[in-house]
Design a protein that fits this description.
Elements: H1 14-30, H2 36-56, H3 66-75, H4 77-83, E1 86-90, H5 98-116, H6 119-126, E2 131-135, E3 146-150, H7 154-167, H8 170-173, E4 179-182, H9 186-206, E5 211-214, E6 217-220, E7 303-304, E8 311-312, E9 347-354, H10 362-370, E10 375-379, E11 400-404, E12 418-422, E13 429-436, E14 439-447, E15 457-465, H11 471-481, E16 489-494, H12 512-519, E17 523-524, E18 537-541, E19 546-552, E20 560-568, H13 586-595, H14 598-602, H15 607-625, H16 639-654, H17 659-686, H18 689-700, E21 710-711, E22 717-718, H19 721-735, H20 763-771, H21 786-791, H22 797-810, E23 821-826, E24 836-841, H23 844-863, E25 886-887, E26 900-901, E27 904-905, E28 907-908, E29 911-914, E30 917-920, H24 926-946, H25 952-968, H26 971-974, H27 979-999, H28 1007-1013, H29 1019-1035, E31 1048-1049, E32 1064-1065, H30 1077-1086, H31 1090-1093, H32 1097-1106, H33 1109-1112
Parallel strand pairs: 9-10, 15-16, 25-28
Antiparallel strand pairs: 1-3, 1-4, 2-3, 5-6, 7-8, 9-20, 10-12, 11-12, 13-14, 14-15, 16-18, 17-18, 19-20, 21-22, 23-24, 26-27, 29-30, 31-32
Helix pairs in contact: 1-2, 13-15, 15-22, 16-17, 18-25, 20-23, 24-25, 24-27, 25-27, 29-30, 29-32
Length: 1120
Amino acid sequence: MPPKPISSPTLSTPDAAAKIIKLLETLHVKLDSKPQCECNQLRQELMELKKMLGKSAEQPPPPLDTYSAVKMAINDAAAYSEKAKRAVWVGRPEESTPELTLASDQKAIEELCAELNDGSLSQALTDGKIRYHRHPEVKADRKKRILKIVFTDEKTRDQFLSLIRSKRPSTVSRVPGNFVRRDLCPYELQLERKARIDAYALNCKIGGLAYGIRDEKLIKFNGIPRPLPAGYETRPPRGYSDLALLNLTNPAINTSLFLQSNGMNMTLNESNSNPSSDILSTLTPMQSKPTVNTTAKGSATGAVDRSSSEVIVPIPSIHLSVSSDCISPSSPSPSITSKYLLSDSKHIELFYSNARSIRRKSHLLSFIKSLGYHLILLCETWLTSDDGDAFLLGSQGDYVAFRKDRITNAEISRGGGVAILCSPPLNPFLIASFSSDGIECLVIDIHFPNLSNVLSSIRICLIYRSPSCSASSLTSLLSFIDPLISNSFLICGDLNFPSIDWTRLTSPSNNDFLSFVCDHRMTQFVDFKTRGDNILDLVLCNTNIVRNVTPSLPFADHTSISFSLGVPSPPLGDFVPSRLYHLADWESISSLISSHDWTLALSSLDVEHASIYFTNFCNSLLETFVPKSSRSPFSHYPKHLRILYGKSQRASSLAPNSMQAASFAKRFERALRVHSERVESRVIDSKNPKAFYSLCKTRLSSSKSAPPGIIDLNGSLLLTNKDKALAFSKYFASVSTLPMHAPLRPSVPSPTIPLFDLPSISPAQILAGIASLAPKCNFSPDCLPNIFYAKCKFSIVSPLLIIFNKSLHSKSIPSLWKQAIVKPIPKTSSNAISTFRPISLTCSVTKIFEKILISEITSYLESHNLFDFNQAGFRWNLPLNETKCTVVHYGNLSPRAQYLINGTPLSVSPSIKDLGVLMQSSLKFNDHISRIVSKARAKVNLIFKCFFSTEPGLYSRAFSTFVRPLLEYGSVVWSPHTVTLANHIEGVQRNFSKRLFIRCRIPYSLYPDRIAQLSLPTLEHRRLISDILFLHKSIHGFYSYDRTNLFKLSPLARSLRRSHSLRIVLPYALPKSHSNFVTRTIDRWNVLSAEFVHSSPSNFRSHILSLPSISFTPDSLLRL
C-alpha cells in the first residue's frame, strides 16, 4: 500500500514559530561542536514542541495527489494484472433478456474476430481462451452496460486492440458511439471521462470533429476537422453538466487534469490570467504533482519520514513559504510525451547521465540534444585528449562543450571524465577544472545578463568520483571547491557515496563530504535510487532553485536525472530565415537575367550606381525564386521513436530501477540504432556524394564557433553580442596597420620591357574568374553567394562585363566591394580576445574582379622575368609578435646564440610546427609521425563509434575522406625511410581494415587481401605516388624553388628504350640525405616512358595511378 500523506506541522502562534527557529539555529551551531547526546536532546525538544502544536491545531491530511493515485494503482498488482488482460466494448446495446443479450454478444464477438482475420484470435475464441461478460453483473437502473472481453495474457489483448485500430471493423464502427478500448483503472477512468468532456466541448466550439480520446488522453486528429455527426451537440457526455465553467481559449490545452489546491501551498504561472491557466498542458499522470510546503524526501536539509508521524526538521535552514514568482520544487515538468521538445520551456532544463563511454552513446546523446535541454551533464565520458568534440557536439552549433578528461597512463586505466554541454544563450564560461586520483571536476558559470534581480549567474560544478578514490583526493577536491562556492552553487555528479543516508544526514563512518554539504547548507534533491539500491548520483544546491527532479532515460547502468532550475530560460534568438539554394529555380533566374537589357540599364550610370542596380536586381530575383527556411518546432526523429521514448520516460518516472523501465530503455536504444542504420543505408543507396559527405561531417566533425563568453584585454567578461562586436572591432583595429599611401615614383620606360596595360576585360576572363570560385553558399555583404554566379554564369557575363570595364576605365571601385563581414576565428581554445584572428568575407564579385587583375599582373611580371627568384612573399607591413617567435638550432655546428627582437629574448625550442609539419632540430620526423598517427587512430575510433551500418563502402569512403589526409599531408617532406616508422603509419590502415571486416561480418583474411577487397592501396604506395607527382611538377616548372641542390637534368647521350630527355641525376649528397624525396623517386622516374613524363599533370597522374602497386614498389619497407 502507498504511504499515507503527512501534513506539515501547523504554526498556530508567532511565539511557537519563533521558538522553532531559535531551536533550529541552536542545533545548527552546536551540531559539530557538542557531543551526540546534546544534539539528540535538542531534537527531542523539537519533537515535543511539534506534538504540542499538533494537538492545538490539527489538520486533516490532504487528499491524494495525482502522482500518489497513480502509484497506488500500480502498487495494486493483482487488480492491475487482471485489467491488463481485458478489453472493453463500450456502447454495445443490450437485448430484452439476459439470455438474448448473451447470445447477441457471442455472435458479435465471433463476427468481430472473423472480420479481424487473425488466425490466432479465431483459434483462441474456438478454444474458449477468450471470455466475455457484461459489467456490472446486475443491470439495476443502468441504461447500458459495457462488455468486458477477457484474454489469457496481455500480449493477446494488445494484438486484439491493435487490429481494431488498424482495420476499423464495421462490426464496431457501424453503430454510432461504439468503440473498443483497454480496461482502465478507476483513476484512469476518471481521467478518460474528463478528457471526453474536453473533446466534446472543443469539438462543439470549433464546429467540427477535431479532437478525440485514446485510452485516457485527449488527442487531436490530423488533417481538416470532419463535420459533426447529427445530434452531436445535443448528446453531451456524462458529467458535462457538473462543469460549471468551461472557458477554453486555447484548443491545444488539455483540461482533463486540474490543479486542486486542497489546502496546500500551490505555485501557478502568473502569466495565465484566464480560467484555463489552472490547467496542466498535456501532462501524463505521473508528471502532475501538487506542491506542498514541505521538503522533498531525500533532501539534505530535511525530509518527511512517511513511516511514522515524526517530522525531521531541516538542520541548516527552514523554509516557511515559497515565493510566488518561482516554480515549486515539485512543479510539473515539461511534457516529453506530447511534443518531446523542451525548447518552449519557461525555465532552464537540465539532463544528467552517467554515460560510461560516450563514444558508444553518441546516437543517444544526439536524441537527447534534439529535445532542447539547456544543459547536458555527463559523467564517465571515457574520452581522452586524442578524442575531438565531435563525440559531444557533432557539426551543429547548438551547444558549447566543456570537458575534463582523465589522464591515462600505464598505472591509470581508461574511464572517468566529465563533460558539460551548454546552450550558448546561457552565456557559459569555464571557471576551473580539477583532476586527481579517481576524481574529475568541472566548474562553469552560466549568466543571465537580462535579469534585473540578484540572481545574475549560477555556478555549476560537475564531479565524477570513482569508488576507489582515496581520502586524500577527496580532501583535495573539497579544498578546490570551497573557495569557488558562490551565492547560487549547484553540485551534480556521480559521487559514489552509497553509505550516506540523505534522509537523516547520517553515515556509518566519518564522511568529510557530508560535513562539507552541511557546512555550506546544501540540499540534496535526488530521492530515488540511481543504481541498484543506492543513491550514487546527486544533485545538491545551496539555494532553493532546483525543481522537478525526476528519473530519465538511462545511458548505462545508472538512472539518468532530469531537473530544472527556477530561473527563466533565456529567450530564443530571433529566427532569421535563410535561402534554400538547393531548391532554387535557377532556370527562371537565368532566363530573367538574360532577357534584361543591361546595356540600356547601365549605360548612363557610373560604376557605383551600376553596381547597386545589379545587386538589387539579382537579390529581387533570389527573393522571388529561392524559398526560405522556416523554424520547425518538431524533432527530426520519426514519430515511433518519440512515442517509444515517451513510454520509456513514463516507466522510468514510475519505477526507475524496475525491469519494465530497463526493458523500455533497451527497446528504445535498439530502435534508435536501427533508425541510424536506416539513415546511413539511405545515404549509401542514394549514390549522392554530397549527402554522404554531409552525413560524415555531421557525425565526425565538430562545429567551430566562438565561445559565448569573451575576455577583453582589460580582463572583463563580455556576454552580450553588442559588447563582443565593439570589443572585436577595437582589438582588430589596434593590431592592423593602415595601408601606406606614399606617392609612386615615376616609371622609367625600358627599351626592352613594354609597359603594363589592360585596356578592357573580356567575357572569357569573367567566365574563368567565376570558374575559380567554389560553388558554395557563402556569406557576403551583397547577399549574392558563389553558387549564384556558378549557376547563372552565362547570363551574368553581360552585366559584369559592363561593370568591370566601367571600374577599370574610371579607376574607381564600388563602395560595396570594399565592405566585408569580419568573422573572428579562435586560434586556440582560449576565451581571450587576443587569441582571435579576423577573417574578411568579401563580395563574390570582388573576388572575380580581383582574380582577373591578379592573373593579368602576374602573367606580365613572369613573362618579363620581373620577380626576384628569392622572393617568397610580399611585404605586408605587419608588426612582429615576439611571443610567437621561436628559435630552433639545426646541426651540431650551429652557434647557440641568444636572439632578441625589440629587446625581448626569443625562446629556444627543440621543435617547431611550420605549416602543419612538426620540424625537429635533428631533422627527424618521429614526433610528427607519432602525432598524426595518434590523430588518425582517434578518427578511426570515431568512425566506428558514430556509424552503425554493415556496408563496407561507407567505412572505406569515410576512411579515405577523413583519416587518410591526416596521414598524407606534407608527406613529401617527412615520408619515413625506416621500417619502424613506415609500419607505424601503415598500422592505422591495417587496424582499420581488420575492424571493418569484423563490423561487416566478413571472414578474416590477411592485410594484403583485405585492402585488395576494399580497393585501398597501401599508404606507402600513395606516399610514393605523391613524391613522383611532386617531382613531375617541379621539373615542369609548376613549383618555383631552387632545385639545383636537389637534382639536375642529365639526359643520356644515346637513346634507350626505357629512357627520356628529362632523366635526372643527384648532385653530391651526404649519406644521411637518403630520406630526400628525390632519392626516393629517382630510380622510378628515370625508367618511365617519355610519352608520360612529357604529359600534363592530370594525364601523368592518371598513368601513375594505373600502375600496379606491387610492381611499382618492389623494395617496400612494410611488414605485410
